[in-house]
Amino acid sequence: MGVSQYRSGAPEDWFVDPVDLGVPGVRRLDAVRKPRPEDDDALAWQTDALCAQTDPEAFFPEKGGSTRDAKRICTSCDVRSECLEYALRNDERFGIWGGLSERERRKLKRRA
């Protein structure tokens, strides 16, 4: 049986929108900010980021895992400041950004 011949038996209108159910924290897509052309420019630094050329798991270690390798890569990255600025502006809560862990970024924000 080919994919085009497959029928699941589920009605086409089976999806229930979580907004209609009143799920907390869920907003309609039209309420979410639409991407602007300048957003693409704001992320252009990512193409030069060294982390994009390495194992992403190093930048998102498990709780208690070492951040040493990721931070070492960040020290020689040309876009480290742009990365950190992005993480602070967008409240990134996980991973190493701009050479700082989540805890270090929180401390930095409190001091600012």
From TrEMBL:
Its main location: cytoplasm. Binds 1 [4Fe-4S] cluster per subunit. Following nitrosylation of the [4Fe-4S] cluster binds 1 [4Fe-8(NO)] cluster per subunit. The keyword Metal-binding applies. Keywords: 4Fe-4S, Cytoplasm, Disulfide bond, DNA-binding, Iron, Iron-sulfur, Metal-binding, Transcription, Transcription regulation. [4Fe-4S] cluster binds at C51, C74, C77, C83. The keyword S-adenosyl-L-methionine does not apply. Residues 50-107 form the 4Fe-4S Wbl-type domain. It comes from the Bacteria. Its cofactor is [4Fe-4S] cluster. The Fe-S cluster can be nitrosylated by nitric oxide (NO). It is found in: Cytoplasm. Belongs to the WhiB family. Acts as a transcriptional regulator. Probably redox-responsive. The apo- but not holo-form probably binds DNA. This is Transcriptional regulator WhiB. The gene is whiB.
